[in-house]
Amino acid sequence: MKQIIFFFTIFLMTSCGQKKTVESKPTQFLTKDLSEVPTFPNCETHKDWIDKELCLVNSIQELISKKAEESKLVLAQDTLKVGIRIEVDGSSTILSNKSNNKELESLSLKVLEDLPYIEPAISKKLNKKVTSGFSFYVIFKNNEITSKWER
To answer: By the 8 A CB rule, do 134 and 83 touch?
Structure first.
């Protein structure tokens, strides 16, 4: 009888302390699910979402390049990986900022922190503004961007 009570007590103690884990699937949007992609301030004239996306990435690359030029930073053969998230309020969050050149990394961090308001993406399905993310490489060779996106 003591064994039954002992096992019953152990069972109760272990089952009461357990927490249920509920898995939630994040909502994922592909660019095709968006009626509007994020729009950088100088990209409003582009009507097509592909052109707007190209303009957004190329504009950020140009800001980084301009800042490097102003700082007299020599970029012989350097690569920078940029990842940003455009929030529903138009602000941006830096997801990644990695480079083989630490000076470029530091300079680009300042540029990314100072990005202007970016009109957020709009979801077709939800008919509202949504958060979206972009990740791209900026490749420099002899102080020139060689990774500009083209259609």
So the answer is: yes
Q: What's at 40, amino acid-wise?
A: F
Q: Does residue 150 contact residue 53 with C-beta atoms inside 8 Å?
A: no
Task: Tell how far CA 141 is from the center of its chain.
Answer: 25
Rounded Cα distance, 42 and 56, in Å: 8
- Crossing angle of helices 102-113 and 49-70, rounded to 10°: 120
Q: What is the pLDDT of residues 1-12, one digit of tens each?
A: 544 444 444 444
What's the pTM?
0.75
Rounded CA-CA distance 123/129 in Å is 6
* 73-114 pLDDT per residue, tens: 999 999 999 999 999 999 999 999 999 999 999 999 999 999
Q: Which residues of 93-122 are buried (b: 16+ CB within 10 A; e: fewer)?
A: eeeebebebeebeebbeebbeebeebbbbb
Spatial contact of 95 and 84, defined as CB atoms under 8 Å apart: yes
Identify which of 66, 72, 82 has the alpha carbon closest to the alpha carbon of residue 136. Answer: 82
